[in-house]
Amino acid sequence: MARCFSHSRTRARRRCPRPGGAFPRSSGPWGCSSVLVGVISDTHGVLPASIHEVFAGVERIIHAGDIGSQAVLDELEAIAPVSAVEGNTDGGWQHRPLPGRLTVTVDGVRIHIGHKLPDLVRAGIPDGVEFVVYGHTHVAAARDIDGVWYVNPGSAREPRDGSPPSVALIEIAGDRRDVQHVYL
Predict the structure, then answer these.
(1) What percent of the chain has pLDDT over 90?
(2) Is a pLDDT exceeding 60 seen at residue 151?
(3) CB-hemisphere CA count at 13 Å for 50?
(4) How many other CB atoms are found less than 10 A from the CB of residue 147?
(5) Strand 176-183 to 166-173 pairing
(6) What is the value of pTM for the model shown?
(7) Region 41-64 average pLDDT
(8) Which residue has the higher pLDDT, 17 or 107?
(9) Is 7 a residue whose pLDDT tops 70?
């Protein structure tokens, strides 16, 4: 059974209701639909057995590096399209080179991805980004700094802070942004 810890922010007063539990895909009375993004990092070649259940219904998966094998990306691709960056332990196994950092847009929301947060900050966070996703530390974190969410899903395989392995879910629903860590 997965345990969850949730953070949220609403950019405006209008909220889309979430009936029926954690992050269901729904349409509220204002026509807001909820979009889910699965976030994972530091798998080091092995996915947790529960990943299909946890990421069921996501529209995109972001892997923030230290993937470890093409099989990990292939299995994630069977769930949803994957945007991935190279981590410091990746190299040589990829069918195609992975970028060191990447910006994707999901439901109009820009998400900047890299493995090490200090490298992302040094390179500069692109304008208009609402989420910065990173890994490397093996410690789950989510902080809203000046209107930008900095999200580390933790490690899906080898957490370093005494917590169980974890991933994150980002929900985009109208003007609301939610981040939920799921401890596997």
Answers:
(1) 72
(2) yes
(3) 12
(4) 10
(5) antiparallel
(6) 0.85
(7) 96
(8) 107
(9) no
Lookup result for tokens 């985009």: 172
Provide φ and ψ at 74, rounded to 5°: -60, -45
Nearest CA among 132, 80, 113 for reference residue 141: 132
**Pair of tokens at residue 73:** 């990306």
**What phi and psi values does residue 119 have, to the nearest 5 degrees?**
-65, -40
Length of the chain: 184
- Please give the C-alpha separations between residue 101 and each of 40, 73, 116, 119, 183, in angstroms, as whole numbers: 15, 17, 9, 9, 26
Angle at 140 between CA 159 and CA 39, to 5 degrees: 100
d(CA 22, CA 148): 22
- Name beta bridge partners: 112: 103, 132
Q: Cα separation of 3 and 140, whole Å? A: 13
Residues 27, 25, 62, 79, CA torsion sign: negative
Give the H/E segment covering residue 155: none
What confidence category does residue 163 fall into, taking pLDDT thresholds of 50, 70 and 90? confident
Q: CB neighbours (10 Å) of residue 164?
A: 14
Residue 169 in contact with residue 60, Cβ under 8 Å?
no
State the Cα–Cα distance between residues 156 and 167, nearest whole angstrom: 6
The architecture of the domain spanning 33-183 is 4-Layer Sandwich (3.60)
At residue 160, φ and ψ (nearest 5 deg) are -110, -5
Q: Which helix (H) or strand (E) holds 51?
A: helix 51-54
Residue with token string 């692109």: 126
